[in-house]
From TrEMBL:
Residue ranges crossing the lipid bilayer per the database entry: none
Boundaries of every AAA domain copy: 3-177
Keyword terms, alphabetized: Plasmid
UniProt-listed PANTHER family: P-LOOP CONTAINING NUCLEOSIDE TRIPHOSPHATE HYDROLASE, PARA FAMILY PROTEIN CT_582
This protein's record includes keyword Metal-binding: no
InterPro entries linked to this entry: AAA_dom, DNA_Partitioning_ATPase, P-loop_NTPase
Protein name: AAA domain-containing protein
Signal peptide residues on this chain, from the entry's feature table: none
Amino acid sequence: MARRIAVGNHKGGSGKTSATRNFAAALAEHGKRVLLIDLDPQANLSRRVGAKFDPSKPTPTTAEVIKSAIEGVAAQAIKPCGWPEPYASRIDVISSRFDLENRISEAGVVGAVLRLEQALAGADDEHDFTLIDCPPSLGHLTQLALAASDWSLAIFEPEFDGVDGALRLKEFVEKDSNRKALGNPDLRMIGYIVNRVRTNMGAHDDQIAALPETFGADQVWTPYIPERAADKDASDSEVPLRLVGTTAAKDQAALWATHAKRLIDLDGAA
């Protein structure tokens, strides 16, 4: 069964979706099979991996998967990413679209928070990792991801609001009563990745200096990820970083490869 990881931050604009995409590409380059679940109604992850919803060829999306909640039904929504090989055969996607917002109104239904977990049962057994891209919230959609995941990973910019958003996620996950309510007492945070770092900003340096005390020195992953135009180029072109072709893109991909290796090692040690 895949190791499931909810990638999140309470704040939007942290680069969480780009990080999820880059993680998937790096894991695939390490030879791992990855399932991506787009749990954001904006569906940016779906587009950026070339798997956005096509109304002319409709397939089930996360909205239908969660609504059904039949055990294992998520397998019917899995499709390959739109990237070339070797990514195409190693990265699968459950896409999102705007109607995923309809699931939010179901938060008060008894057992609703377990619907994604039920739908995924057995569906990702042939994958090594399942990465769930959460919306910038701690509401129902993110809770669906946390209830279905083994681990949570925070992505944030080294700015006050970004750090605060990651801290809110940490506090939510580490609260015993929350994990109990999610039916997932073994859920835990595994790390904090500092994204979009600008070396010419003193404010970023100040925030980074305080991170070990805030999150724990062993939990803040290095290397930090600098802000580079290559990330936007890859997102806009709907390709992995290495296919952008520039030196900056390859350097950025190498940083994500380091983080992917750490994730693989953590999985092996668990």
